[in-house]
Amino acid sequence: MKAFAAASRLAQNVLKRRAVNQLSKRADHHGGHIVNPGPPATLDLMPVPHQKYQTVYNELQGKFNIMLAASATFFVGCMAMAFYNDIFAVDAIRAPDSYRNRNK
After folding, report:
1. pLDDT in tens, 26-81
2. Is this prediction's pTM over 0.85?
3. What is the DSSP letter of 45?
4. Where are the domains of the chain?
5. What residues form the membrane-spanning segments (predicted)?
6. DSSP string, 21-82
7. What whole-number distance in Å separates Cα of residue 92 and Cα of residue 86?
8. CA 12 from chain center: how many Å?
9. Which residues contact 102 (CB under 8 A, 6 or more apart)?
10. Pick from 62, 63, 81: which is nearest to 73 by CA?
């Protein structure tokens, strides 16, 4: 009987805590006050370039072209390997050949 009473009290405590947590989550609207986002953004906060546009463009474009070539090569290699291993089951997908051509 004591064990049942202890378990009952424990269950009630758990339910109380759970109800309080749910209530606080539901009522969590920060009191309705408006958050100050700070000063308005102006053009004074914009970054000022310190190099010529064409210099930076050429450097970045070279890097991006190398990345593009490497990824295209990797893609072509993966597709070639996939067709070599017949991952896409090309023979099973296309229409069957005529009976004369199948048994040659």
Report:
1. 555 666 677 788 888 888 888 888 999 999 999 999 999 999 999 999 999 999 99
2. no
3. G
4. 51-97
5. 64-84
6. HHHHHHT-SGGGPPP---SPP-GGGSPPP-S-HHHHHHHHHHHHHHHHHHHHHHHHHHHHHH
7. 10
8. 41
9. 96
10. 81
